[in-house]
Amino acid sequence: MPTMPKPGDPAPEISLPTDEGKPFLLSSLKGSQVILYFYPKADTPGCTKESCAFRDNSAAIGKKNAVVVGVSPDTEKAQAKFKTKYGLPFTLLADPEHSAAEAYGVWKEKSMYGKKYMGVERTTFLIGQDGRIAHVFEKVTVDGHAGEVLAELA
Q1: CA 144 to CA 69: how far, in whole Å?
Q2: Catalytic residue among 11, 36, 47, 100, which?
């Protein structure tokens, strides 16, 4: 299983469909800072709160020449519904095979009510304009997270 990339490492390429069903390549964003956030499931309380916080900070994020990209194991259809429902102004990627989550080392064994299962550990990667990992936010706490990320942008 791949390990999580660290600051200074090249960001692993992501090739996934967007919420609009279009192909997406992470490398196409080179030259911009990228806030790449992995979340467990669209339209669940924590993920909604996190996504809406990025939405609410999108003007400030844009001023820093940064773009937000969200990734979860949901289907394109579920991502599109989530994006529309909350007016999210950024791309959401469908990763039902969890290839991106695995490449970034965030597909982990989790435990809920004593049951073990595989899922996405909420993690945000800040990728610099050079395509390298600039900062990793692990085991993200949703409250205040968008502000923390904003503060790290160059």
Answers
A1: 18
A2: 47
